[in-house]
Amino acid sequence: MSRVCMVTGAVPGFGHAISHSHRRTKRRFDLNIQTKRYWVPSLGRQVTLTLSARGIKTVDRRGIEAVVRDIQARGVRL
């Protein structure tokens, strides 16, 4: 599963893990990605979205209809 939020477009960040002796190794800061199913009345079916925690809050605030409309306007097939 891709670690990208379908609503916010957030992607993993990259940086260094710094040890006590200050040696640096590459690391990846992953998002809190969840798979959520929502019922969309306009489509008459359920859609499965991969969302970050902030993306879930955005769906709760704006509503699933508005979010799905924006995702489809970008050309993403649901």
Automatic annotation (TrEMBL):
Q: Which residues cross the membrane?
A: none
Q: List the GO terms this entry assigns under cellular component, sorted alphabetically.
A: ribosome
Kindly give the InterPro entries that the UniProt entry links to this protein: Ribosomal_bL28, Ribosomal_bL28/bL31-like_sf, Ribosomal_bL28_bact-type, Ribosomal_bL28_sf
UniProt keywords (A-Z) are: Ribonucleoprotein, Ribosomal protein
What the record says about family reads: Belongs to the bacterial ribosomal protein bL28 family.
Protein name per Swiss-Prot or TrEMBL: Large ribosomal subunit protein bL28
Q: What is the lineage of its organism?
A: Bacteria, Bacillati, Actinomycetota, Actinomycetes, Kineosporiales
